[in-house]
Amino acid sequence: MRRPDERAYGPGPALDEVLARRKVVCCVGSGGVGKTTTAAALALRAAMAGKRALVLTIDPARRLANSLGLKALGNRETRIDESLFRSAGLRPRGEMYAMMLDLKLTWDELVQRQAPSPDRARQILENRLYQKLSTAMAGSLEYMAMEKVSELHSSGRFDVVVLDTPPTANALDFLRAPDRILDVVDNDAMRILLGPMLKASRIGLKFFALPTGLVLRTLAKFTGQDFLRDLAYFLIAFEGMYGGFKERAAQVKRLLSGPDAAFVLVTGPNPLTIEEALFFHRALQADGISTAAIVVNRVQRDPHRFSGPDSTPALREALQLAQIADGGDPPLSQRLSRTLAEQATLADLDRRQVEELSRTLAGVPLFVVPRLRRDVHDLGGLWQIDECLSAAEE
Amino acid sequence: MSREPAALLDRRLLVVTGKGGTGKSTVSAALALAASKRGKRVLVCEVTARERVSELFGRPESGTQIRELSRGVYSVHVRPPEAMREYALMTLRYETLYNLVFQNKVVRYFLNAAPSLAEIVMLGKVWWHAAREMERGRPRWDLVVLDAPATGHGLTLLTVPDVFLGIVSEGPLARDMRDMQALLKDPTRCRTCVVTLPEEMPANEAIEMHRALDSHGLPQGALFLNGVFAPRFSGQERTQVARGGPLLAAAADAADAHEARADLSVRYEQLLRKEIALPVVPIPYLFDRSFGVGSVEKVARAIEVAL
Questions:
Q1: ipTM, interface predicted TM-score of the complex
Q2: Do B112 and A183 touch (CB under 8 A)?
């Protein structure tokens, strides 16, 4: 019988094959599963293979900066220094870049690009509602991440852009964010509702028409007059730009569901994150996007892949044979036995989870990255992960 | 006359946040259980996509109805659509007016499109239970525990009043938002607790979250360090066992794996104590095959000292 941990590496494809020819790779999954590290490892892998690869992270916690041993990342791309590769003993054939998304700046750039005139752009940038919408509103980050990826892709400066997606509460938030935000600027319903206000301001009245009708009056009761007025200003400023925004969003969607993009599902071996990964997978499917690969991080390895007994009496004997004192309180043999049992339990739980995942997602290449003995915070650590991504599980 | 500072569990609202996968729901459940053992009536509000706390107590999902999970511990799943309706009805008072306005097709579209509205109504409901809900002349709940979303979204949720009041300054919603803001920022009534793990990324994120909460003026309780491994073997023991030959190979590997995690536990506990001026409460790693009420009890015992 095969020991639980000795899963033979089967004829599964290497991740490089799965991702070859893809120009955009999105790492998706719930928070805390090592998405950022996986994204950085994928970019490193591409750079080692001779590509100009960029990893884009959006996380305000600056995690990528940590995993690349960088002190800080700006909104502009930073080339990972040659010396970092050298000190990790790596010789890349390509180039690796990293970038951290600046939410506000990305919004501003988008507005400047889409506005028909610099004046109009300024009007929007100065709008109070815009300033709040662009930085603080939920969904904004997700939308801008996609926008930035699309921009970087069409710039043609990189062979591959790897996106570390934001730690979204759930998959649907991520996939629907662009629609949700776009609805705010491209919303006929709101325009009908705010019609009287819009009209009043367009003909240059000094004051805003009071909201007319019961519906508008009631809404104002909730949100206040000021908000509705800001909203009206906001809509006026955006007038004529909806088309551009919509086309842009459609472009992003086409890119992400097309052959140039791949979604890599990142997960950990515990039931909660796997459940969320499956949820993600189904949400992608519903949007006509297939999962290119699954990466399961931090899988515990079974100590029983090595030889030796695990009961306290047998360990006591083994210690005696090796002339090691069975000292301490509790004695060494007992502590070793307990530790073996605990570690084997962890490995067994993880193994079951991985097996179930691979059964549920039969046909999707699955990669297992064992729990490493130390944190990954440099290129050397990332490369260790890359080596696990060489071959899919059987 | 000096008084002992009130215990953590003596607040009206405890918010539990932290990076995904750190065990927020387990800690929320443990806080509720510990409070119930002190005779309190506790409501756990879950706001993430899926309920966890009811499951931890081995009970069916509570859904949007408040249900008792164990003696004194209740839970409710706060979902935006239902919370929106409740809140609107509370403010508008008349169902017919609600239906007229909120069932209006155009308005529904507006409500779906307005970002952060979901966060506003969810927080509104939690605030209602914690600060407003009365029963026979006294607050219905002694304590409300908010099992908040992961760090980034958790912060979005907690700062929704700040953001909203930056845009809207009048109307009943603004008035309620000011009350919510006051509750969240009142250290005698509310504390936010961060849950983290002894690993680099979660620990760094906890430190950043701590600073962000601080800069938003949100008072904090304890920092819970979950999944801690205690050192078990001396360096000499490990070297000896590692050289002990094939009979001790598996044992040496297990001891190594254990000590690697114990090293991380020690290192990040030290880092967190240095960077964060709050009680750091270690919670031992649980080797439970499935998490149930027994696990929650173990965690509750581990954190008892800090409550």
A1: 0.85
A2: yes
